[in-house]
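for the writeup, i need someone to sanity check this before i put it in the appendix. the sequnce is what the collaborator sent (i think, or maybe the updated version? ugh). structure was predicted straight from it, no edits. if anything looks off just tell me and ill rerun, i have time this weekend
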Amino acid sequence: MHRVFCGLLWLLPALFASSAEGSQQIKNIKIVVSNPSANARSAANVVIPIAEIRKVAPDFKPGAAIVTASDASTLDEETSVLQTEELPSQMDDLDGDGKADELAFQVDLGPRQSRIVTISYGDENRIWRLRSDYKQRTAAIFSRKIEGLGWESERVAFRLYFDPRNAIDIYGKRRPTLQLSMYASPDYLYHDESPEGRDIFRVGDAIGIGAVAALVNGKLVKVHDVRERKWRVPASGPVRSIVEAEYDGWNAAGKMVHLKSRITQWAGERGFEHAISADCGDEFTFVTGLTARAEIPPESSAKDSLVTWVATWGKQVVAPGPAAIAMTAEQNLGLAVLSSAGGVRIESDAQNHLIQFHLNGGSAAWYAMAAWDQEGSNRKIVYQNAKTEGERQSLVLPSDGIADRDDFLKAVKERASRMEQPTTFRVLSSAASVESAPVDSAVSHGARTGGQAIALLQQAIDRTATTWEPVLHANPENGNPKTLPGFFTEADNTTGEWQKQNGYSWTGSFWVGELWQLYGRTHDDKYRKWAELWGAKLAGQELQQNHDAGFLYYYSSALGFDLTHDAALRSSAVLGAQRLEQLFNPKTQLIASWGVDGDDTIVDTMMNLQLLWWVSDRTGDERWRELAKRHALRTAEWFVRADGSTFQSVHYNPGNDRQTFLLHGGAIRDTELKLENSAAPGQRVFAHTHQGYGADTTWSRGLGWALYGFSVAYAETREPKLLDAAERIADYALGNLPDDLVPWYDFDDQGVHFRNRDTSAAAIIAGGLLRLSTITGDASRAKHYRDTGERMVQSLIERYLTPVGDNDHTPPGVLRHGCSVRPHDAMLIYGQYYLLEDLVWLEQHKHATP
């Protein structure tokens, strides 16, 4: 038997020496982010200069990038990661030249934890399908209404009086929302009491909180006498906002200083970073600080602390109203300023608690924070009550703010810890690279013939049959098909053992089909006996199935009849076709996937047409062929995009003007969607993909169903539109396969979010390419499709079919790394079936001997 594949094996060195048809269009840079402290650190701030990224990735595209993280701490651990966490990120242009300078994101870290972070970039069309819409969690504005620059997180807002006062004020927030634009709106009274938030601080003649000033001859000199003030908002995004102020010609008690100030507000934080640079020399004394209240004694850091801080907590919330000067007795406010500069001193005057410092190399930085005990006291959320049509209700959650002095000082010390031991990052990649294939598929391996691969699959099939035959015998013939044991879909990649499942699901016939394939190849009666044993469990249920009647009764009854001429199998196949006819809707020209008068069809149904073609051939009744042709033509119109990629599902008006649709599959299974529409009967309402990454991405197995299905449909009908669809789909696949020709579960994702390859998709796509190679009228296409189909099969049998390499102890014949629903990673019964079918097809369609 091994001789039948020797011609293909002879071609392999040349085939694998050529480059892959497609190339992955998303590249990755791996970095490790580390928390050096013994305390957990939520939302650690990370800033990576774009210049650092370009050292290893000169072609890096800041405008088309996604940041993800895993819990792996080393690159070796990273190879086994299947699912990542997307981190909201932003690219910031700090100098205004229209080019990004820094990448900013936040990441949660455990005590002394390191996490691998991946920066993925590439084709914009693909990246922006994958990148989430990040909630805006910071903002920055300049407004005359608020008298200058403002910046905010969801917890607190600040403003810098952009005038001779040059002080920083505070807006407290009862609701965790962004509110600066509201404060800046015409006629809005932000001093008044509000369920949202208000101005809660009285600055007076002080510098407020975290502003900059000078100390000359022991006297505070505010940034008051300035020749020109300028401002900019370099960033206002989901991760951080940045505002800048520039003071040209500041007369600091006779010394002319050019001062620049940059304030950065990070998402979720109660404070801001304030960095300055100046041309006054490092001996000039600067100060920052916070407003002093005589009745509130300050707290401060220990003298030997690496971070110096001063803080106050108490009755320092101004009463509501624009003219109010008194403090309200019912509320407390915490203020703090922290500096990690060396040689700083804490001093106080009548109005301020001050931290003195000098510049180091012309610059300095500190952190200021504020916490109102009313923060989050109106955390109102709105939700939909499913039991009441359209009625919206709301809840107010308990406050998540800081309630007392101890909590505030704890937060101050936690911030000091972050400043003492900053989060670090290190670039691990020496160059940008595509996400790699599973590590066990990349081990050294020898060449394998098709006959050898079939022998391995045959061993696996024999193991399965002998293990599960007693289970099947132990159950009555009329057992409930939904609870019937003895069928399977997924098996462990390492042990090859099938997971137990209730019922035969939609996949039951692939196991029966494997047995028929081996019976047809070997004529060994044990395979016929097993096929009839398992196939009998499917019989009698034909008219209760959904569209999968095509799968269930083509691979069991139709294949079995062709080998045995058993009239009962022929009758079963015809009944399965009748069920598809019942599901066909003449208004939509489609077989509804889930029930009569259903509102959606999935692309998988293209494969179920095989049963209709078969029944038409065996009965001579052309109505089955016509029904299948009409379904295929409408699928080509509604499911195949211009570039040859495919949708998974299309919903439509089946004739009853439906406004509520039931979504099927994956995480959205059995979810109702109310969607007002005016689609006429038979018209499409919307399309989506639910087993791939996103609604508009391309699920690789779905594309495989389409490619294989349209190739067979054209062979059966010679309808040019169906050939055109098949060729466009094939060309898309060839243009997007990774180097080893085994696709990612989603052609767009490419391992960014889910690192699943799908060997079942590879086997199905290979089968489609091989069939298409025999019917396309273009000789160059035919060769290209045939060669690639063969190389896909060869990649599967050498890299993914066990054993792979000398040290592989997995039982023979396990086809690893199929993906049913992300992030599942397993051997799949249909992947095993289609690989066997591909190998048998290649035996029967050998290349002519040179």
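Residues 714 and 722 are 5 Å apart (CA to CA). The chain has 18 helices and 37 strands.
thx in advance!!
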